Amino acid sequence: MGRLKALLSRLASSDAQVEAEELRASSRQEGSIAACDCRVGDVVTVKGSVRSVSLEPSSTLARMEAIVYDGTGLVELVWLGRRRIIGIEPGRRIRATGRVTGNSGHPTLYNPRYELLPAEVV
Q1: SS3 call for 76
Q2: Inter-residue contact 13 to 6 (CB < 8 Å)
Q3: SS3 53
Q4: Per-residue pLDDT tens for 51-90?
């Protein structure tokens, strides 16, 4: 009965709700921390889907930013001195590790170690 209830619930959910649930479950399985649980100063590993990428080239220091959604919230990844990182693009799944700062209103990792992940099979 529980499986039928879960299936019916999933069918009634929006695509965004289904994606959020899948991202949360995938992150929990691998031991990644949820964006909503990130605390300033902690070294964390987050996993999610890249929502947007922006570049801020300047005469002093290039800066690339990626916003990652993990099903619970957003995490900003910032690479200083980078104009582009091949493979980091909207829709791509990524795992990143770094120290959390909080100067942008949500968890931010500067120059994180990262791994590009293949699309997950559902």
Answers
A1: strand
A2: no
A3: strand
A4: 999 988 776 788 999 999 998 899 999 999 888 899 999 9
**Mean pLDDT value of segment 37-56:** 92
The tokens for 65 are 């930013």
> Of 110, 96, 95, which Cα lies nearest the Cα of 41?
110
Distance of alpha carbon 58 from alpha carbon 83, whole angstroms: 10
CA distance 80 to 108: 13
Q: For domain 2-117, which architecture applies?
A: Beta Barrel (2.40)
Supply the pLDDT for residue 122: 43
How far apart are alpha carbons 94 and 50 in whole angstroms? Answer: 7
CA distance 8 to 26: 21
Q: Which of 31-40, 47-56, 109-118 has the lowest mean pLDDT?
A: 31-40
Which of 17 and 90 is assigned the larger pLDDT? Answer: 90
- In a 3-state reduction of DSSP, which class is residue 22? helix
Q: Where are the domains of the chain?
A: 2-117
